[in-house]
Amino acid sequence: MPDLLDVKGLETRFFTRDGEVHAVDGVSFRLAAGETLGIVGESGCGKSVTALSLMRLIPYPPGKITAGTVMFDGQDVLKMDDDEVRAIRGNNMAMIFQDPMTSLNPVLTISRQITEALELHLKMNRTDARKRCLELLEMVGIPSAKVRMDDYPHQFSGGMRQRVMIAMALSCNPKLILADEPTTALDVTIQAQILELLKKLAKEFGTAFILITHDLGVVAGMTQRIHVMYAGRIVEKADTGELFANPKMPYTWGLLRSIPRLDESRRAKLRPIEGLPPDLINLPVGCCFAARCQYKRDVCTEKEPELKVVPKAKPDHEARCWGTQEGGWLVDVDYRTDTTVMAAVGAAS
After folding, report:
1. Does residue 264 carry a pLDDT above 70?
2. Can you say whether the dihedral through the CA atoms of 81, 72, 167, 226 is positive or negative?
3. Which domains does the chain have, with CATH numbers?
4. pLDDT digits (tens, 9 = 90+) for 15-40
5. CB of 211 within 8 A of CB of 227?
6. What pTM, to 2 d.p., does this model score?
7. Are residues 60 and 16 in contact, defined by beta-carbon separation less than 8 angstroms?
8. How far is it, in rounded angstroms, from Cα 127 to Cα 106?
9. For residue 182, what are the contacts with CB-CB under 8 A and spacing of at least 6?
10. What are phi and psi of 97, to 5 degrees?
């Protein structure tokens, strides 16, 4: 089966007074029909800009997609004219935005915002579109949907607004949904409900999902594969189970160490990643993570590593790190124990 989405060498820049921001820098990945992919990383690493680039929603100026191809269902989105992009946006490819309060139109009712897409893309009349709108709102768990469908966004809670956004995304039965941190502003109980809903709908409709988040805990039970991003680049790719069991990029180690674990003592301290992400206008020479990496060597600050298959890992597990490539000093390291890591580093010196 051919890939539903095939992204190669995607580059997105923002041209500012201070210089050229390398927001997305050579991102490549594939997604099959019905597959779920997680893209994780710290704020500012390029996750959301990647999603917006796939939808051709980068504002120009100051932003511009400067290179790459985005093959969606056999067509290059980046070569389409505006009318062709509008025909697939919200129809075959939909997006759940991070903040529903700013994404929903405050002066239009919920029903109108959903029926607009149905009338435009599926050519439904107003009566059929309202009937479909009611079905969608009931599907995503809006109580008293028949009464609430003519309410305005400010009359809904944050969790209910997010459910409305999901209903809008599902309205035209898209082949791909991009969910950009859909649970960030929600409490943990509502977050769990939204994630369970997304998981159920993905299974029910066979829709491919890209789930974008800074929280590795969110993607653990939601996705089949995970891509870790840093400084606009993918620095590690693996199946979800493989990434959690055998992470190979020190940046991924840092992300995993900074979240609570149920199997650790209550007194165990979280270990944040020291330092700050690099300036995307003046990227450093070599590995972008080197300045924050406690395991770096001279080569890390001299030459940028490529994204390569990791030795002694599954064939589709790739990492962008000199230390975990063939002959590297971190190949056999268990990131959970600093003593093991430091012994390995010392032995390789």
Report:
1. no
2. negative
3. 5-223 (3.40.50.300), 228-348 (3.40.50.300)
4. 999 999 999 999 999 999 999 999 99
5. no
6. 0.90
7. no
8. 23
9. 96, 98, 162, 165, 166, 194, 198, 211
10. -80, 165
